[in-house]
Amino acid sequence: MSIQDKLRQSDLAADTKVNLIFEDGEDVTHAWGGYEEEVYENTGVAKHLAQLVTDPSFKDNDVLEEMRSQDLLEDYPRDGSGFTDFVEEVIKETNSDYEWFEKWTENYDHKRGFMNVHAKVGTTVEQVLNASPDSVSGWKAEVTTDLGTTTVEC
């Protein structure tokens, strides 16, 4: 059952706020720098985030707005193709300058550890339900209700 199916069954109002969360990570050798880019590639965090924020259902989201305000999308050729791939590359190249996702490394010893990546995008139930299933695949939804915070996972 998809995250969209579960949200439909929850019978939440369309304007209910939702935080979509993507979490992943992998073992790294932190003694030598440069492992972060490999983790981003292997976990797909930049790809998942780009696919989500470029979905038409999530227009005017904070990530794209910040990219626009910082002129990070100026080099996009505007030919209508490959926008998601372009945004993914921008995320990979500039992630240390922006807070589009959190990252931290748990050190096992002096050279090995585990790097965690965590992306969080605020939206509404309606936008999640209208999105392409591929765009929200791999994400979990965190919804705050009168009963507390509920996490919906697939």
Itemize the secondary structure elements and their pairings:
Blueprint: H1 3-10, E1 17-29, H2 35-43, H3 45-53, H4 62-69, H5 83-94, E2 101-107, E3 112-124, H6 125-130, H7 133-136, E4 140-145, E5 148-152
Antiparallel strand pairs: 1-3, 1-4, 2-3, 4-5
**CA(first)-CA(last) distance:** 7 Å
Main sheet: strands, sense, barrel = 5 strands, antiparallel
Biggest β-sheet: strands ordered side by side in the sheet: 2-3-1-4-5
What count of domains describes the coordinates?
A: 1
> What count of helical segments does DSSP give?
7
Number of strands: 5
| Approximate shape | globular
Portion in helices: 25-40%
- Beta-strand percentage range: 25-35%
Which structural category do the helix and sheet elements fall into?
alpha+beta
Low-pLDDT ranges: none
Compressed to H and E, one letter per element, the order equals HEHHHHEEHHEE
| Mean pLDDT value | 92
Radius of gyration based on Cα positions = 17 Å
Report on the architecture of this protein.
The chain is α+β, with helices and mostly antiparallel strands. It contains 7 helices and 5 strands, in the order H-E-H-H-H-H-E-E-H-H-E-E. A hairpin with a 4-residue loop joins strand 2 (101-107) and strand 3. Helix 3 (45-53) packs across helix 5. The chain is globular and about 50 Å long. The mean pLDDT is 92.
